[in-house]
Structures are given as C-alpha cells and as structure tokens.
Amino acid sequence: MTAVKKNELVGSLYDFEEIKLSDKMFTKFAERMYELAGVDLPLTPKNHALIRNRIVKLLRRHSLKSYEEYWTMIDRGSPEMVSEFISALTTNMTSFYRESNHFDFLGSVLPDLCRKFGNDIRLWCAAASTGQEPYTIAMTANEAVGDNSASKVRILATDIDLQVLKKASSGTYEEREMQGLPPAQRHKYFEKIKAQGDEFWRAKDQIHSMIRFAPFNLMNPKYEFQHKFHVIFCRNVLIYFDEATTKKVIDNLVTCLAPGGYLILGHSESGNVKHQQLKPLSRAVYQKL
Ligand SMILES: C[S@@+](CC[C@H](N)C(=O)[O-])C[C@H]1O[C@@H](n2cnc3c(N)ncnc32)[C@H](O)[C@@H]1O
Q1: Does the chain have fewer CB atoms within 10 Å around its N or its C terminus?
Q2: All CATH 3.40.50.150 domain ranges in the chain, comma separated
Q3: Pick the catalytic residue: 32, 54, 186, 283?
C-alpha cells in the first residue's frame, strides 16, 4: 500500500469516528432494539457509546455516511439487515464452565432425572451465544451419565443472534475462546484442527451430536415446543431486559418446564424472580413445583 493510500484510509476511519449520533437517532435505534429483542437501552452515556461504536462498524461495512442513512436502511430493511442490526447490538460474552456451580448442580441431578424420565432427558440452553454454554452442558452430561449420554440427553441451543449461532453450531474455537475449559476436558472433547494456517479447537462428535442449534427469540409471545424440558438454562440474558419483559419471559419458560424440572438463571439475575410455581433451591437455581 502506498503512503498516500494509507493516509486516505486513516482519514476515512477518522471521519467515521467523527459522525455524530444524535439523541434522537439513539432513541430510534434503542426503541427498535427493544421491539425486536426486548433489550432495554435507556439513554445513558454508556449506552450511547455502545450504540455509536457498534453501529459505526455497520456504517463502514455498507459505506454509509450517517446514522440517518443507516436508519432508513434498517427501517425498510431486509431480514438480513435486521438480523445484522440485532447481532450488532447484542452482547455475547460467554465462556466454558461460566458460573461453574450450575454445572456441578446439573451433574448431580442428571442421573436421577434419567431414572425418573426413562433416559429421555431434554435440556434447553435459551441464550447460547457462541456455544461454550451448551458444549459445557454436553460435557457435564457425558461425565454424569456416561459415554452413551447422546442416547439419553438431548440439548436444544438457541439464540436470537444468527451470527453467534452459526459459530456455536460449527463448534470451532480459537485458543483465546477456550478460556475456562480444564485441560482434561479440552483433550477429551475437542480436537485440534488447522484452517488457513491457523490452529483451532473443534468439538468432537461425542458432544456436538448431542446439541441441536436453532434461532429463537425470547420475545416470542408464546413458546411452543413439542416436549417439555427437564432443565432450562437461561443465563445472563435477563439482565438486558426490563422488569415487565423479564416477568413475561419467566412465565413462558415455566410453561416449558416439566414438573420437577429445573430453571437455571445467571447469578446476578435471580433478584427479581418470583413465581408461584418456582421453588428456589440454590443460587439462581429453581425447581418447578
Ligand atoms: C451475555 S450472552 C450470555 C451467554 C450465555 N448464556 C452465558 O451465560 O454465558 C447473552 C445472549 O443472549 C442473547 N439474546 C439477547 N436477546 C435475546 C432474545 N430476545 N432472545 C434470545 N436470545 C437473546 C444474545 O444474542 C447473547 O448471545
């Protein structure tokens, strides 16, 4: 690249950062995100910076010069544009064995669930992000019920964000994304692969085959599944919802649980959960009565 071209590039990136996001446009984006995904983004300096920094990348991608132009595009937008907008504004932070006591709990109840429900156990991971959580569930099941766990335990992993779901379904991770996974589990359940000169870890079929990946929006008015779930993980997503949305989501999740089944939320999310059919058991773990 010549010096002139380099300067042009620096200039154009700099210009993008200079584009101002007005409070009016912020509110339009925030309201649309609330309608689409239930994610509540009140006008605060932190949320303003979040929307600005994430949408500026989409301005660059589509060679647009203002947030107003981008708004026109998503307002009339194709499903792909809307999906890209949702993906840009969701926060997908996750890791293997995050809030690990929940997996100790799962491992301790699974053998009993298998006995009670005839080795046909259904688990739902309702905000699966890039997949570390459902693969941790699969490894935990494998440790708890034995190597033939795929014939006893089925896991549905869903998320609203199609980009993270695609990655989750590939089960392929860079070294930095393997954080939290102990060496024994890493070598037992993942294999090293090379792609375009780089090394990755890929989930082995033993755990991959236990999981089905599908898009699902927790804002759906009703959750309709053929079977009830014995355990639902819905962790670290309710924090993005307001109280009314959280209540609706919890009500819907409870209808999907088999009696005696368990609902597991994120550690910081249990504060405002009160439901007459949910008995609190331990930190952010509930049993349906
Ligand atoms: C912070 S991650 C949590 C991931 C994982 N559950 C964990 O605890 O590590 C939150 C996830 O919730 C998803 N999400 C946000 N709004 C959603 C909605 N309305 N329906 C389904 N998933 C949603 C995001 O796409 C994101 O992947």
Answers
A1: N
A2: 101-174+205-288
A3: 54
